[in-house]
From TrEMBL:
This is Bifunctional NAD(P)H-hydrate repair enzyme. It comes from Tahibacter aquaticus. K(+) binds at residues 65, 127, 163. HAMAP family: NADHX_dehydratase, NADHX_epimerase. The gene is nnrD. Keywords: ATP-binding, Isomerase, Lyase, Metal-binding, Multifunctional enzyme, NAD, NADP, Nucleotide-binding, Potassium. One of its GO terms (molecular function) is NAD(P)HX epimerase activity. One of its GO terms (biological process) is nicotinamide nucleotide metabolic process.
């Protein structure tokens, strides 16, 4: 597992506080100087993103995030623009008080928030209310101010994190700012890149405040964004003197009555991603349709688990679950497939059956649940999974001793040892039937070509998401899972060294 670059690392609130303290102690910085650097960075973002803005309203809380806001307001005023400060409470620490004093010293006024009519109209609003330390739902005047900001049509720049969003989990804690752009200071926060955090943050920019890498050395982030350039090295090059047997044999198992399309998508995705051979074990009724649609698939009608045995002996990797069902046919094939202890990717009903009969895996295995499937695997519910996607993914990986892909906005890849990677690609158009079946085939093909479960999951999720982005260039609404099959070739062609 390669070490991610510092710009890809994702930190918790507790880690960020230790990094701040390290910067102050090791570099001889004053915390007020870090606050000024944050204000300078936010001002540069504001000017670049909204150069025509003539009026700005900065909403300041009582903590250090509010201090950033006061210093930003001073910079906006010094640039000749009209700027107002709306305060939610008085400064609660020395640095924030110094920042408020600096704002007043340049002629600025502080206006307390006194209801929605006290918030002036502006070209741009700045959210400097709560920062990363918030861990409770907003109430009273704070909730009303957030709701008022969201109701305005002008853009909102959030400093470090939108107020009301958990910096650690990406869950909305209650009323939450919907920012147009969020500037993250020093490093990325985990909550900015998954779940509700993606919509709450809007566009994201990182401002490292010119801190050296040394301030991060004592903190093991444990989570990182996938890096497309780094992923390039995970797909091995192909020599010219090769044959199909060198690139693995995937056996896709599924397609109960009426669901032959699911296993066809998984099988074709495995072919498109470079598996040398792909067999499909499915209900006899699907044989003709699958062969007519994709003759390169080796389709075998399977009435029961006895007929599965010779296919299992020939295959190197299993893609288990698309259209499998949980009736006796699907359960019997599931049980026999797992008894083979082959490397496998489990999705859909293979996961629902696993929830009924939990086990730890010894062979390289990737589980690909969406939040509802993850909830069943954890004997929980979807709301709890979405409230802390990082914890849910890590719990699944540890419980089942498998690499886990928790699908959704900002898909997470978790390893049993605790590492988590986050996918920054993908789009809402991919919330459609069959997308998970395609992902199952993609990851199975990469496993078959010799990648580890972790590398296959990371590269598979990235390639799948980027293929989805490519396919969505003609529009996200109406995007079909099958639309990803040809872009997958192009995406992986860009990764390979052949």
């Amino acid at each position: 597992m390669n070490t991610p670059h510092s710009s890809q690392l994702l930190y918790t609130t507790a880690q960020m506080r230790r990094i701040d303290a390290c910067a102050v102690a090791a570099l001889g910085l004053q915390s007020f100087e870090l606050m000024q650097r944050a204000a300078d960075a936010a001002f540069a973002v504001l000017l670049r993103r909204w150069p025509q803005a003539r009026s700005v309203v900065v909403c300041c809380g009582s903590g250090k995030n509010g201090g950033d806001g006061y210093l930003l307001a001073r910079l906006v005023r010094q640039s000749g623009r009209d700027v107002s400060v709306i305060a939610l409470g008085t400064p609660a620490d020395v640095d924030s008080q110094a920042a408020a004093d600096a704002w007043r010293a340049c002629g600025g006024m502080v206006h307390p928030f006194a209801g929605e009519h006290s918030l002036p109209l502006a070209d741009v609003y700045v959210d400097a209310l709560f920062g990363i330390g918030l861990n409770r739902p907003l109430e009273g005047g704070a909730a009303l101010l957030v709701q008022t900001l969201n109701a305005r049509r002008s853009p909102v720049l959030a400093l470090d994190i939108p107020s009301g969003l958990s910096a650690d989990t990406g869950a909305r804690l209650g009323p939450c700012i919907s920012a147009t752009l969020t500037v993250s200071f020093i490093a990325w926060k985990r909550g900015q890149h998954t779940g509700a955090g993606l919509d709450a943050c809007g566009e994201c920019e990182l401002a490292d405040l010119a801190l050296p890498d040394s301030v991060f050395e004592e903190e093991h982030a444990g989570a990182h964004l996938l890096d497309w350039n780094e992923l390039r090295g995970r797909l091995p090059a192909r020599s010219r003197d090769v044959h199909k047997g060198q690139f693995g044999h995937v056996l896709a198992i599924g397609g109960d009555h009426g669901t032959g399309g699911a296993i066809r998508l998984a099988g074709e995705a495995a072919l498109r991603c470079g598996a040398g051979l792909v067999s499909v074990a499915t209900q006899p009724e699907h044989l003709t349709a699958l062969l007519a649609a994709r003759p390169e698939l080796m389709v075998q009608p399977i009435a029961g688990q006895q007929e599965l045995e010779p296919l299992l002996q020939r295959a190197q990797v299993l893609a288990l679950g698309p259209g499998l069902g949980t009736r006796s046919w699907g359960h019997a094939l599931w049980h026999r497939a797992l008894a083979s202890a082959k490397p496998a990717v489990l999705d859909a009903d293979a996961l629902n059956l696993l929830a009924r009969q939990p086990r730890k895996f010894s062979a390289p295995t990737v589980l690909t649940p969406h939040p509802a499937e993850a909830a069943r695997l954890l004997a929980s519910d979807s709301a709890h999974v979405q409230a802390n996607r990082y914890a849910a993914a890590q719990a699944l990986a540890e419980r089942y001793h498998a690499v886990v892909v928790l699908k959704g906005a900002g898909s997470l890849i978790a390893a049993p040892a605790g590492s988590v990677a986050v996918c920054p690609w993908g789009n809402p158009g991919m919330a459609s039937a069959g997308m998970g079946d395609v992902l199952t085939g993609v990851i199975a093909a990469l496993l078959a070509q010799g990648l580890s479960a972790w590398d296959a999951a990371c590269l598979g999720v990235a390639a799948h998401a980027r293929a989805g982005d490519s396919a969505a260039e003609q529009g996200q609404r109406g995007l079909l899972a099958g639309d990803l099959l040809l872009p997958l070739r192009s995406v992986l062609a860009g990764l390979a060294h052949d």
